[in-house]
Write a structure and sequence with these properties.
By secondary structure, the protein is of the alpha+beta class. The chain has 11 helices and 11 strands.
Amino acid sequence: MNGTFSVHLSGADAFGEFAHEWRSRMGETFALARFSQESVAGFAARSRGFRLRDAMFNRFENTAALRTVGPGVGAEDHVRLWIVHRGTWRFGEPGGAEHTAPAGRILVQTGKLSHFAAAPRTAVRMLVLPAAEIRHGRGRTASGEGGSAEVRLLTAHAAALHGTLDELGPAGLDAARETLAELARAVVRGGVDDAEPRLSPVLAQAARDVADRWLTDPGLSPTAVARELNVSVRTLQRAFAREGRSLSAYIRERRLDEARRALLAPHRRATVSEIAARWQFADGGHFARVFRARYGRTPTEYAAADAGAAAVGDRTERPAGFTGPGAPSGR
């Protein structure tokens, strides 16, 4: 079952017209929730969406406050992604947990809801997919920033689908549906605070790649890397916690390694202080302390020992920790 709809309703029977349009387009798979009497009486809204086989997308804007009542909302085997553009969106879970998303945030949830509600003049985009598409654990709710590139791409794809869905053939429908699911996965992996453990190695490697590119940048920090990757600092910390080393420690070790290489460079002209400054160590004293803790000697001692070893041609007597050209292979 596929189809699009677009309604702008207000007046005495606005909710009845909306309910009829929804049921005819969405079917029982995406059954309409039961709303409170106050919500029905004051209903005025714009709704623009589509059903694409086992997926549903709806762009919804309400004038008055809304709240559902009665039995649970939705299906157990669905995952829902709400993107809040204006106002406030809230929902509850059967266990009693309540979640709120203000404008500029996204919420991801799997399983039934006890209810949902929207403040007056709320604008939200809602995508519903089979839970297996994203594998976001049942009963878990995640929140993230709603302005990421992945979110913008998802909403742009949904808008394009609304205008072309009725003209697509079977191959086009397959491609459109798979793209919708793939973009939803990208949003969840790249922009929510509750990343799945299996995604942590990928996220940690992406963070290391960013850090390697920015090692000489004074603004490099876990916060800056998290912003670049469209995740929270907490998510980034969890990814590195599983590896037993923080991102800050990785950055410090990589800068020390590059500084050590600079000290060993043939015909080096840069002073120890200049090398420390290039690799973002606050001052010479701090650089000396952390370098000695890592390599067993101060930078000056390390460079002098290397120069002395080179002068006598003894390649087996390198400074402690030396791994440059000519170091023993250990074989």
